[in-house]
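Self-study notes.
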Amino acid sequence: MKLHTLAHSRAGDKGAISDISVIAHRPEDYAFLVEVLTVERIEEYFASMGIGAVERFEVPQLHALKFVIHEALAGGVTRSLALDAHGKSLGSSLLDLELPDRQQTRSAAAYLNEERIHV
């Protein structure tokens, strides 16, 4: 299943930093997204771009995750020779991420009870 089936994204950029928010379509899918959209998974997904550090922020009130990806835009829109150096394109690209089968991950209820997330 692709990420776009469970969420939509909003993205922006400032210099070489891309800011991508992933927002669950349904509140009940948020815990699953928290579980599978790790910093490591995002780093792996964008590895071919030679990105820098990735930071993740949880926004449970909005059922969203925010990723700040450093050195993602080859110097930024005004400095890059890339065809599309805007952070918005990275948000769209991320929605094509293949998610694992829910049966292969911890249940959302177990995750909510075990971790710090209180929806």
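Second protein, same conventions, sequence then structure:
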Amino acid sequence: MRDFLQINLNQTPWQAHPTLPGITARAHDVRLDGHPVIDTMMAQLGPQGAPWHQHETTCEIAYALSGSGMLLVGDQANPTRTPMSAGSIVFIAPKVPHAVTCDADNPLCILILHTLAAP
């Protein structure tokens, strides 16, 4: 463990996302003294975006670095739709279903942090 860490995601190779098809990511698990692991990744979404999924025990913070699309949250049949573009940041609680659609000619690149929810 440590109390300070600097990483450069631009120096990390792109890899296929481990569970979401069509997404490539540069990822690190950050471990700091006195804090749970923070899953940190830069994700490039393909034109198909990110399929519906949810995180059982972590909160997701997503910051759009470039591109544009739509965050879909909640009920798949009638989701809440929130536009995303460079500079947008969203916070998603654990167990909340969500997906992302991308504009075909301008897919999103997103910085994502997953951290454990409060007990």
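Instructor comment on the second fold: Residues 79 and 91 are 16 Å apart (CA to CA).
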